[in-house]
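Recall the central idea of this unit: under ordinary conditions, the amino acid sequence of a chain determines the structure it adopts. In this exercise we apply that idea directly, starting from the sequence alone.
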Amino acid sequence: MVRVLGKENTLLNKFVSELRDVHIQRDSMRFRKNLERVGEIMAYEISKTLRYKPLTVETPLGEAELNVPESEVILAPILRAGLPMHTGFLNFFDDSENAFVSAYRHYRKDGTFHIDIDSVTTPSLLGKTLVIIDPMLATGASMEIAYQALVQMGGETEFTHIASVIASEDGVEYLKKRFSPDKMKIWTTAVDEELTVKSYIVPGIGDTGDLAYGSKI
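Accordingly, the structure predicted from this sequence is:
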């Protein structure tokens, strides 16, 4: 159910090392570009799992036969942190439809929090391949809530991919207990061991939304 792309020798790890580097993080434009690059590589890897169909193309000198994707892909970034990765996915899945989820943590005075969904927009998901994009998979709770909000509005998917730069062990185990590998797969570059009391991943990256777009009130 989980594919950890960073375990392979790949250029992807250079981009992730820069995303993690506290000094390089100061360049928000490079930070966004590296998230976009990770999105492109994940899109390429996910494309290998889709259904394909044969296509005959007329060239200036004859005909060429090749296989092209048949699966209908819906890209669903979680705002705002998922937007740069979403751009990378769109560079490859350039004809896909798109859904958007606005979700955030609402903290209580005791430090605990619950997930609030501000808004959800989606096309029909019936029989389609959904890719939910969020750079950090921490507890897994927000991902589950976002998924449930999407399918409640758009219908059941054929298959769902979760695309995160960094995941936590707790988040991965949380989703594995709630979803079948026949219906969902998690894509990440690394699975970090620790979560803080406020559910931030360690060593992680930091607040990807703030690093990409600036701090918020």
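The chain is about 30% helix and 35% strand.
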